Amino acid sequence: MIPSIIDFSLRNRFIILVSAVILFAWGVYAVSENPIDAIPDLSENQVIVFTEWMGRSPQVIEDQVTYPLVSNLQGIAKVKNIRGTSMFGMSFVYIIFEDNADIYWARTRVLERLNYAQRLLPDGITPTLGPDGTGVGHIFWYTLDAKKMDLGEQRALQDWYIKLALQTVPGVSEVASFGGFEKQYQLVIDPLKLQYYNVSMRDVMEKVKANNNDVGGRKFEMSDQAYIIRGLGYIKNKTDLENIAVANNKGIPVLIKDVASIQMGGDLRLGIFDENGEGEAVGGIVVMRYGENADNVIKAVKLKMGEVQKGLPEGVSFNIAYDRSTLIEAAIKTIKEKLLEEIIVVSLVVILFLFHWRSALSIIIQIPVTIAISFILLNAFGVSSNIMSLTGIALAIGVIVDNGIIMSENSYRKLSEWQNNPENKKS
């Protein structure tokens, strides 16, 4: 077979040259399309199911949430393993799929099975899917420099303005907030007053929930004009919450402020974020979507942050805590320099040792063509340009040159044998 290929190549040199040019052009295009990252993604092909049930012990979470989910998620196609973890108030289930399973197909299968498993969980508990990112998806961290704002205001700014804006960037799966206090109204109920007014805790909870809502009515027509009737009941401040009626005592309404004191506070925290030992900070973690180009996503995030900066309060700015693009650019720059140096050194060595420019040129041309074709294969197998893959290409240059030298020397040997054969001279 190999002699046939060689014979075909020699007899159809124009076709071979055109094919090489087409492959080289395709490879150059593949280089621009190949995702760039500093490190290879070796994480498992997994889908995470997260369930929150605050205030429950790990054993209760394990028995009533994690175990039912793990039991009913088994049997999904292409699943290799399922792992469950329970902690205080939270449950995590990791569904590991086979490597050839498409991640979004896997998420769809898990979501279908969760619709069935939902009925086995306690009332009001809803499992959710984790972001469609990987273990190396944390590509960008930032904090807020806002010395004139307290931690609660910073967290509100992060959750309700910055986070929502950055999540619109293409390639971003999630922006996870950290630090500060999640502001909330806190009702400190006096049990003695509940007993005095004959009001239960459930009555308070239900009344607060029912009174924080808008309701719609019908259309009212008068004088050839139509009016839409609506009941506006959303709580806007602490006073609105204090004036909610929870019961009736001898014809007198019992308000929230009669049985409880209301304060503005922060949600329960399981940890704090300290920046460089200078105090607590508020910020976010940008998680990249599966299979995206990390370098392009970071550039888009920075561009969006510039737009968001214009809408921030005076004196508030961003501090970059971690930026993988610096590592990506440094790693890619180093590998490119080494590749170029290696190509130049190899070319000089080939020219000096063969001392025949046509033979050296045929070997040197193989280097860029082969490297370009390798990027076509990288895209085909979903491998990004990173330290590992580019180093492999650099190491393979020696093999490429060796093959060319061997073929050239073998060709010269065959020609020499043919020329020195007496029968060939007679003919």
Describe the structure.
By secondary structure, the chain is of the alpha+beta class. The chain contains 14 helices and 14 strands. It has helices spanning 2-11, 13-33, 58-73, 103-117, 151-166, 191-197, 201-211, 238-242, 256-259, 294-309, 324-354, 357-380, 387-420, 422-426; strands at residues 46-52, 79-87, 90-97, 128-129, 138-145, 172-178, 183-189, 215-222, 225-231, 245-249, 252-255, 260-266, 283-288, 317-323. A 4-stranded antiparallel beta sheet has the order 2-3-1-4. Strands 6-13-5-14 form a 4-stranded antiparallel beta sheet. A two-stranded antiparallel sheet has the order 7-12.
Write the layout of secondary structure elements.
Elements: H1 2-11, H2 13-33, E1 46-52, H3 58-73, E2 79-87, E3 90-97, H4 103-117, E4 128-129, E5 138-145, H5 151-166, E6 172-178, E7 183-189, H6 191-197, H7 201-211, E8 215-222, E9 225-231, H8 238-242, E10 245-249, E11 252-255, H9 256-259, E12 260-266, E13 283-288, H10 294-309, E14 317-323, H11 324-354, H12 357-380, H13 387-420, H14 422-426
